[in-house]
Design goal:
single chain; about 400 residues; alpha/beta; eleven-stranded mixed β-sheet; six-stranded mixed β-sheet; globular
């Protein structure tokens, strides 16, 4: 909500994590959070799957079926303004699925970024103006698969190429290696150039990264902080992450908040809960090996929500800006209810989610700290909010 402090406009940018609208009546899943999303001047969310009528399935991984293009209108109605599209599923229905999603997002009144008919379009930022300030958003996929990446002549998404190196450092061939992950320098530099160009034309710069280890609590992979910090060094005011379908911790770097993973927001689909083998052998195989890989099975009472039980903790990230930059960053704790709907929580009911964020931040050895100010949960050290002590996570209420 645009407000005035003295002679200065302030603009609030909100961000949520993954969005999968693959069930009937998508607006109903957004109903509990819609007032919160509409209250922000700009709300950004990540559309995880193609929205297309195409029946093509080209992914070599676990293909996500396209969702109904009409479902995107529910995002606009709920207050979402910008959608990031650079992710590992955007190419699951091929080039047509990519271009259809972009076109349907625009038709629904959303401003897309991160995917397009070629790499130049995919790297074009979404820019909107609110309260006299220009807000720019860029979106990059860090997790592959490579066929999802756009080229100069192929539709797809913008990306940062992350490399994986396995080092066997003991005398047991076949034993568990140490895993190193890092961004290809040329790819990282390409992202930094985009951010620098956007910085020159926008007052507020948000970079969204599809990154991280899926369905695993707390872990932040080796490459994630360096890539996010490179975005800040190039001019980003805030970095938001998604993809892992579970919350990640918070880091503050040079006063900029890095939300390493905003987790699920509305992610409803039966596609990953096949009851009869489904229409995809890959999805059926995934359902079988999910428990071995990640140690959980979806709640049988929620077949439309096939995700880790801890993923029902989620947040909305909010950042308030004025003409001088970031004033403060905060989280609004939410809990995904038994119907798959994210429900914002008030100060008397949010302790479990706030504690969860503090715990996974600490376990990942990140420096983010949370502090209450009245009904708000602020990120200490972000913008002009004073830093908290290095070992405490103060979450008690203050006047």
């Amino acid at each position: 909500m645009t407000t005035r402090t003295g002679d200065t406009n302030t603009v609030t940018v909100a961000a949520v994590g993954d969005l999968i609208l693959d069930e009937p009546d998508p607006a109903s899943f957004l109903e509990p959070s819609a007032a919160l999303l509409r209250a922000a001047d700009v709300t950004v969310g990540h559309v995880e799957v193609p929205h297309s009528t195409s029946t093509a399935q080209v992914s070599t991984d676990v293909p996500a079926p396209p969702a109904d293009p009409a479902a995107l209108a529910a995002l606009t109605a709920a207050g979402v303004d910008v959608v990031t599209l650079a992710g590992n599923h955007i190419f699951d229905a091929g080039e047509a699925g990519v271009t259809d999603t972009v076109a349907h997002a625009r038709a629904a009144g959303l401003v897309p970024t991160g995917a397009g008919a070629d790499l130049a379009e995919a790297r074009t930022p979404a820019v909107v103006e609110r309260g006299g300030l220009r807000v720019g958003v860029l979106s990059y996929n860090c997790v592959g698969p490579r066929e999802s990446w756009a080229t100069s002549r192929k539709a797809g998404c913008a990306y940062v190429h992350v490399l994986t190196h396995y080092e066997l450092d003991h005398a047991s061939p076949g034993g568990p290696p140490r895993v190193y992950t890092f961004a290809d320098p040329d790819s990282l530099e390409a992202m930094a150039r985009d951010v620098t160009r956007l910085r020159a034309e926008a007052d507020i710069v948000v970079v969204a990264l599809h990154k991280g280890v899926g369905h695993t609590p707390a872990v932040v992979a080796m490459y994630e902080s360096p890539v996010a910090r490179a975005a800040v060094d190039a001019g980003a005011d805030v970095v938001v992450g998604h993809h892992s379908h579970i919350l990640r911790g918070i880091e503050v770097y040079r006063g900029a908040p890095i939300f390493h993973g905003l987790g699920n927001f509305v992610t409803v689909t039966h596609a990953l809960t096949p009851t009869d083998g489904g229409d995809s052998a890959e999805r059926a195989a995934w359902a079988e090996r999910r428990k071995a890989l990640y140690g959980f099975a979806p709640d049988p009472d929620m077949p439309y929500y096939p995700f880790h039980p801890e993923s029902r903790n989620t947040v909305v990230a909010t950042c308030r800006f004025d003409a001088d930059g970031l004033v403060e960053a905060a989280i609004v704790p939410c809990r995904i209810d038994d119907a798959g709907r994210p429900v914002p929580l008030g100060p008397g009911e949010d302790a479990d989610v706030v504690g969860y964020v503090a715990d996974i931040t600490d376990r990942a050895r990140l420096n983010g700290r949370l502090v209450r100010r009245g009904d708000e949960v602020l990120v200490a050290g972000a913008g002009r909010t004073p830093a908290a002590g290095p070992f405490s996570v103060p979450t008690e209420r203050t006047p």
